[in-house]
Amino acid sequence: MVFSSLEFIYLFLPPVLLVFYLLRFLQWENGIVWWLIAASLAFYAWWSPIHLILLLFSVTANFYLHKVLLERKSRLVLTSGIIGNLGLLLYFKYADFLIGNVNAIAGSEIPLLGIVLPLAISFFTFQQISFLFDTYRGEIEQCNFSKYCLFVVFFPQLIAGPIVLQKHTIPQFTLKTFTQRVGLNFATGATLFVIGLFKKIVIADGIAPYSTSVFTLAEQGQALPIDVAWMGTIAYTFQIYFDFSGYCDMALGLARMFGIKLPLNFNSPYKAQNIVDFWRRWHITLSVFLRNYLYIPLGGNRKGPVRRYVNLTITMLLGGLWHGASWNFVFWGLLHGIYLSINHAWSAIGFHKNLEVFFHPLVIKVFYHALTLLGVMVAWIFFRAESFTGAETMLLSMFGQAGYIYPDIIKDLALDHEFFWFISCVIGFIIFFCPNSVEITRRYQPTIDYKSLLDKTHQLKARFIKAYAWRPSTNWSCAMLGVGVISLLQIYRLDELTEFIYFNF
Known about the structure:
Elements: H1 6-25, H2 29-47, H3 49-71, H4 75-106, H5 121-136, H6 145-153, H7 155-158, H8 166-169, H9 175-179, H10 182-219, H11 226-257, H12 275-279, H13 284-295, H14 305-323, H15 327-349, H16 351-358, H17 361-384, H18 388-398, H19 408-411, H20 417-433, H21 437-440, H22 450-453, H23 462-468, H24 474-493
């Protein structure tokens, strides 16, 4: 059951909201908290009832460690908690990966364990590690079990983030939050949810067949014509953008229906002028977690430039591995670590100031933007490909290995080139020139600290956003109703509903 499924929209969400409104009417704070916990656990159990036991064990064990750390600030207890959390993650997510690599290196035949990856284990593991860290550092005092449990399992953010910290949500689990401005909260949340549903079902899933077809051929070692290879790469670049953006919007919207604001996790990353800016916009909460709990403890930038670049690379390597047990993800992380190091070195040397003497600022801006986007697209190839062979085939094809020769196997795909390039122009316009959903709903504070995280480099569109920003009105209601109907009709047309890409991590 995904957010974009008919089961979720028709069978799960309405009764959860109805009971929530009833408990809100009764002014029963504890009842609301436990109801949302029960709904969240039912949502998780829909995927895998057996792994619900693991989730409950993890929540209970970490809450106990939290209580112990409140009594005494023991580094041993903190370390034990971190090792325990990471141990579960390593076993379920990376055991078979490690065994496979040992077999490949040593020529052994150790049988794989065939472990099924528990849904969301990467996300709830990171959240609970941060909670233990914050408890140890004295940033958390008393927290009752029900609110801690809801902090971990709250269904809008449980499966694929954002990675929330305790300061983001636990203070909001109060009757005052649940009961204020219920009509406006629902309208704002429903708007974000509908926008996200459209992004996922119509745009991301609509363009996915192009990327899937091309990458499948690349995995088979089939050299591709230049335009087809670029078509596959551009299609996946758009697909993952709108898939993750759609999920983030839907998560924000669902939480807001209950009066809860989540942190901003996606902020038009393809508008970034450099790779540092990209990571301030893409999966923001993961970037913050890696910075606060890995990069800074490693030494950050406090021990000289060389150590800084090493720390950046290590952080991104592990960030890549967090996404999945595959060397492709590791290499994707390595690429971004190298990108970030080059970006910081370039800024430190100051060559960019010389460019401003010879070139118009707009030319420099466009060049940096294009270079950043190209680097991101190259990295996405390794993220999407199932093997290095597939990624290598894509890259070689993109840069002319097969020219424009069309084998029969390519012709059999029956890809509509003209339609693809037309729709790509439309999608590109949306990405680069239109306000995002947070900007559209900015009047009603759609996220936590949204003002400090909004794009401040595009002031020219500020008046446009202000003039056409969303508000509870007849016109906007009709527009969102139309968007929702289009999305639902598309769901009915699909042969099979696809999960969000980040559900796999």
